[in-house]
Each structure stands twice: as C-alpha cells, then as structure tokens.
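Still learning folds. Look over my entry:

…
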Amino acid sequence: MANSFVPSITTPAFILLLLHFSSLINLSAKHGYSHGHSFVTNQRLQQAYIALQAWKRVIYSDPNNFTSNWIGPNVCNYHGIYCSSLPNTTNIQVVAGIDLNHGDIAGFLPDELGFLSDLALIHLNSNRFCGILPLSLSNLTLLHELDLSNNRFVGVFPSVVLSLPSLKYLDLRFNEFEGPLPSQIFGRNLDAIFVNNNRLTSVIPSNVSASTASVVVFANNNFGGCIPPSIASLANTLEELVLINTNISGCLTPEVGFLYKLKVLDLSYNKLIGPIPYTISGLEHLEQLNLAHNMMSENVPEGICILPNLANFTLSYNFLSEEEGVCRNLTSKGVVFDDRRNCLKDKPLQRSKKECDPVVEHPVDCFELHCGKY
C-alpha cells in the first residue's frame, strides 16, 4: 500500500536530471565514453576510482553482478556509473551519477564516497545496504537527488543530508532510521521528502511551514501530536500530504483546507477526532481524500463531495453520523466512495447503536481542545 503514493524514478527522468546537471553532458552508449573513444583520466576520475574501489571492497553480496565490471581506472565504463563533462568545460569528465537501483546488493557505504564531490544523483533503492551514512557525504555539494529507499540503514535520522546545499529530492523510506525527525529538514529547499516506513518519533515540527516541498510523505512512523496550524504556510507548494499511520491525534486543523494546490490528502489510520473541517471544500484540485480509521464524528460536508476533481473519498471506520446532500449517493457521480463502519442511519455495514451513541451524543468541541489534551 505504501508504495502506491511514491513516484518511481524512471530512466528518462534520470537522464533529464543529468542534462540539467551539465549542458555539455556526453554520456556513452553504455555508461561513460563511447566505444572506441580513448580513455583519458584526470584528478577527479582518479579520486572516483579510489572511492569506487573502496566501495567494492565492502560489498559482500552482489547476486546480479552489478559491480562485476568495476575493474580498472576507467570508472565511466562501470555498470551504474554515469559520467558527464564538468560544467563550463568541454573535456573534463567527472562521475555525475550513480544508479544501482534494484541491485539487491549487500554492503555499506564507505567514507571514501565523499571523494565523489561532483555527484548530482545517487539512486540506491531496493538493495541491502546497511549501517549508518558516512559524514563524508557532506562533501557532495552538487547532489540533487538522494534515493536510499528500501535498504537497511539504521541509526538516528542522518543529519548529514541536511548539509547538502543542492539537494531537492530526499527519499529515505523503508529503512530503520529512528528517533526524532529534525525540524531543520523543513528549512531545506527540498521539493520532495519521503521518510515513510521508518521508526521515527516525536511530533510533526511546528516549523513545518518553512518547507518548500510539493510532496511530503511521513506515513508509518510514530510521530504523534497534532498537525500544526502553520501547515497552511505550505499552500504555495504542497500537492501531496501523506500521514498514514503516524499516530497523530486531536481535531484536524482547518488550516489543512488552505492548501489550495493539494491533490492527495491521506490521514488514514490515526487518532483524529471531531468534525471534518468544511475548509476542505475549498480544495478544488483534490483528487484523493482518505480519512479512514480515525474517530471523526458529526457531518460529511457536501462541499467536499462536489469538489470538481474528486475521484476517491474514503471515510470508513469513523463515527460520522450524517452525509449532506450528494454525499449520500456519491458513487453515482463516478467517485470511489467508502463510508462503511460509521454511524450513518439507513446505510448498510454501519457501527452498532451501542458503539455510536457515546460519540454522537457528546460532540467534540475543537475550540476547547489543545494539542496534547485528548
């Protein structure tokens, strides 16, 4: 389920980003120089050779032989290594990208990777790399994308990623990072933040408003606390907010409805209480809204059900007691709609009266509640 909301990095996208890195890019037909081109080394490629050979020595399993041709100084011909001309030059080749996605490689990342200071891209998803990230990665000042998802990295959140000035895309999902999520991550100029499916804790930082991200995925961590009202400050950039199973609680702040560019909002499997904010009715671009498996109550606003781009609305397993207007028959509009296990009269597959009465008869006053008082 978690993978459904994470966009994959395709090979065309990879090449386009390398083009962005250098207008004079000259990839070979395979990985570096074209066949028949004489190999000319330079200090940067010599450093890359040292780094990649050090890495190969700490790779303990490579069942698909991704690194079997990592032999000799011509690193631009190594599988998964992409070279480019240094910006503003015509003949100085550097290692600009690493793509070992889906290699099932086991090992760790050595300190020598800090020698690859010209890297724009690192894609290592779906391997078995483990351990902690070396602090030497702070030398990668041109790094634009870092994808370490689906590995076995451990330890506290790797603060070294916060020191990368050019980083736009950060994907650490499906690892074993633990402890608090540093508030500084939202002060970086990131476009996408994926930290779902780790062991991260603590509340969503109050300075989330400093983020410029268009996609924020925190799902399947143990954050707790509330969604801060300051999230409204992301309105000019945020398009996807996914907080599935993050242990957030309290009333859903009305400021979520100010995120006017939002296309995906998934807050399922949490402890949200109180009504669905009517402000969500203003999200004209919203396509997917999932509030299932919470403890929300009262009405389902008709304004949400008539949103022009709404395609999927899931609110099952709550305590909602009334659906306004067209919400009663939303499937007739072609919207995928799930309202099971609520307290809706004359609807099938609802909760029992015994379950519903204590909640319906005692509505939550969100104005009287503050985060942490539940």
User: Anything to note?
Assistant: The first helix runs from residue 11 to 21. DSSP finds four helices and 22 strands in the chain.
